[in-house]
Design a protein that fits this description.
By secondary structure, the protein is an alpha+beta fold. The chain has one domain. The longest helix is centred in the C-terminal third of the chain and has 24 residues.
Length: 170
């Protein structure tokens, strides 16, 4: 695993349908001008990428290899970044995509205190529906299937639109 291209790692650690879905998602990100930055510090020895658009984070991708430091039953995970924006509150999307997004909201299960990941639980409106104890990252897709990958593509497109619109206003 000497090369840093994300596709190389996908073919090494994922198989069959998971590999196909991950490669499809990566191709979508690249077609939409996303840049991949390999993780540093805590993430340095893991197969972790921050995906950016025009210098702003869009999502984070982690692959678990058999030799990875972190063990997981999910070979890959994608977190969709909202960076405090309200882009997803009432954005009009199809019902299937909305349902898939709702199933993948990252609800903080640490009920007694602030966890290290979300730094405080938040009430958020997501595609017209309110949720309590939402993590700061909002969406987490563990081992995404085809429907989840299509939803993630839509979330990336919406996030890209949000970044472009905010830049137009400044």
């Amino acid at each position: 695993m000497s090369e840093q291209k994300v596709e190389n790692h996908i073919t090494e650690v994922l198989s069959d349908d998971m590999q196909k879905s991950a490669l499809d998602f990566i191709a979508h990100l690249k077609a939409n001008e996303m840049q991949f930055e390999r993780g540093a510090h805590y993430w340095e020895n893991k197969l972790y990428w921050c995906v950016n658009y025009k210098g702003e984070s869009v999502c984070y991708i982690l692959f678990f290899s058999p030799a990875s430091i972190v063990d997981s039953t999910d070979p890959w995970v994608v977190w969709a970044d909202d960076s405090g924006s309200k882009w997803y509150e009432n954005y009009s999307i199809g019902e299937k995509t909305k349902e898939t997004a709702w199933k993948n909201i990252d609800i903080c299960e640490n009920t007694d205190e602030i966890c290290g990941g979300c730094m405080g639980k938040t009430r958020k409106t997501i595609f017209g529906k309110e949720f309590d104890n939402v993590c700061g990252i909002t969406f987490r897709f563990d081992n995404p299937d085809t429907d989840a990958v299509e939803c993630m593509k839509k979330l990336v497109s919406i996030r890209r639109y949000d970044i472009d619109k905010r830049r137009e206003l400044h």
